[in-house]
Amino acid sequence: xxxxxxxxxxxxxxxxxxxxxxxxxxxxxxxxxxxxxxxxxxxxxxxxxxxxxxxxxxxxxxxxxxxxxxxxxxxxxxxxxxxxxxxxxxxxxxxxxxxxxxxxxxxxxxxxxxxxxxxxxxxxxxxxxxxxxxxxxxxxxxxxxxxxxxxxxxxxxxxxxxxxxxxxxxxxxxxxxxxxxxxxxxxxxxxxxxxxxxxxxxxxxxxxxxxxxxxxxxxxxxxxxxxxxxxxxxxxxxxxxxxxxxxxxxxxxxxxxxxxxxxxxxxxxxxxxxxxxxxx
Length: 280
Prior knowledge:
The protein is mostly helical. The protein contains 15 helices and no strands. The protein has helices at 6-16, 23-30, 35-44, 54-59, 62-80, 84-87, 92-108, 124-133, 141-156, 160-181, 187-209, 214-220, 229-236, 242-249, 255-268. The longest helix is centred in the C-terminal third of the chain and has 23 residues, at 187-209. The chain is globular, with a radius of gyration of 21 Å. The protein starts with 5 loop residues before the first helix and ends in a 12-residue tail after the last helix.
């Protein structure tokens, strides 16, 4: 249950922070001679809070142990937060993953239980029921409208790229709506703004390497960033190099935004050649 006190939350976080892995502990784990040894060293630090089952320990299911710790952390965030709507924004990637997994599982006629993640804003059982019944009226408006649109699209053509992009877009639009309503103009706004700009930059790089049409790029661009969508659209067909094209159009933006572009552009030079069958 959310706590109304920032002081309580800060005090509890201060206590929890004493259990964070130190640099020396991380170094020992990284230098372990095997996965089993690394797991042993990790658990000796108290990671997982002794919640791992004997089977997980015996089979070396380190991913399950890490997933369990992440779920516990998300649960604590919900218990400690003085403002569930704002802290809930950081849990939206969990919801996004679950929505995509459940939609794909329904299309394939399989179960997504093994890959679903606890700790999102939407209870898993509720999310499962809504996607199975295609009833989304109880979801926030952005998600409700997007999922209803996805269902209409699926009735014509089941394209995972399309509905995956639509769910990503819904996440950023929902986050922006919450931040606008809460008049959030600090760290959280900057975090989502930079994330959106970085995501759009990577989408532009992918679009150029796969020789996408402008309509395909527009599908995957997300809102909430500081860089207008038109900047990315204009860069797609510029004759200059990708790096020069982006930087020439973004000189008026803050240094942290330009840094994102420089990092993302550097990735382009390390991408493998695109096979003809990958181009759309």
